[in-house]
Specification:
Blueprint (H helix, E strand, L loop, with lengths): L1 H14 L16 E4 L9 H17 L3 E7 L6 H21 L5 E7 L16 E7 L2
Parallel strand pairs: 2-3
Antiparallel strand pairs: 1-4, 2-4
Length: 135
């Protein structure tokens, strides 16, 4: 009886369609945050390395679109900060497009949404957030 059962199980296994396993796509580490030097659209040395990793992920994951949100610290006036945030966003956009990113949109927030809420120049506020979008 044991031999019949194992033969039956083998026959059923051959007749039963196997479900295909869906391959999971690796996900990116999005969102990314990079930081800028004071009063500049240049990345800090530490963020240069982080940006290189971001570029590798753009090439690896090939996102449908990328969104960049740039900020400044709270020092300086609002108009100047808005222009500086625009320069920062444009610089990141240019670098991402150079790395092969498609459809890179930018948003310049200036001194809005500070991480550190003080009028002094604060490194954490001088940042850009880069988000990969699936659509």
């Amino acid at each position: 009886i044991k031999a019949c059962r194992s033969g039956y199980e083998k026959a059923m296994a051959l007749l039963t369609p196997k479900k295909k396993k869906k391959k999971k796509k690796a996900s990116s580490k999005s969102p990314y945050t990079v930081y800028f030097k004071f009063d500049s659209a240049d990345l800090t040395p530490k963020s240069e390395g982080a940006f290189n990793n971001l570029v590798q992920d753009v090439q690896k994951f090939k996102p449908k679109s990328v969104h960049v949100i740039a900020y400044t610290d709270l020092s300086g006036n609002a108009d100047y900060n808005a222009k500086l945030a625009e320069k920062r966003a444009a610089e990141i956009q240019k670098k991402l497009k150079g790395a092969g990113a498609k459809n890179v949109t930018v948003e310049a927030k200036g001194a809005v949404d500070p991480i550190v809420d003080t009028g002094k120049p604060n490194q954490p506020n001088r940042r850009a957030i880069v988000v990969f979008k699936k659509k």
